[in-house]
Amino acid sequence: MEVSVLDIQGKDTGRKVELSDAVYGIEPNDHAVYLDVKQFLANKRQGTSKAKERAEISGSTRKIKKQKGTGTARAGSIKSPVFRGGGRVFGPRPQDHSFKLNKNLKRLARRSALSIQAKENNILVVEDFNFESPKTKNFTAVLDALGIENKKSLFVFAEPNKNVYLSSRNLKRLKTVTNTGLSTYELLNANKVILSEGSLEGIESNLSK
Q1: Which of the chain's termini has less CB crowding within 10 Å, N or C?
Q2: Is 123 helix (H, G, I), strand (E, B) or coil?
Q3: Domain that holds residue 176
């Protein structure tokens, strides 16, 4: 699949790049995409919610009334869950929600996500660029020139770029990553995926293994 390379003014440079069908033109595997997105969201969960059970709250363990003859239910301790201020029954405990997926499945999911975006013509290729200093208005000008100022965008670069990152981090609908930091969730969550020309080789190298 051939795609034209644009500059940061949104104009065609006259050059074209060939996107590999093995990465951008496969039949998407919906189940692999589901599992990879599920893992991404599960790994973001903190799992730190905690409620105290009867053994953990402060309070006397004295038997508060005699066992029989009161006409009411038996009660052994003020910390019983049936009393106000008592411990909670089967309350939440800290837990790890993450789970493991093998690398080949994750690569398949990312190829599927890229193929979905390519099929819907949501992938743009821009020439490599940099800013002399970190300024948000510089990146806003790039978005305006590409016509994606009101869309959720994912920019993929070959390597970390401090000025570009600092210029973009205040923009709510924009995220920048390197080709090694691609995730299926972020690829599918974006309305437009903008690939820098220098990132293409790394993407194909990482996902073609």
Answers
A1: C
A2: strand
A3: 2-45+98-207
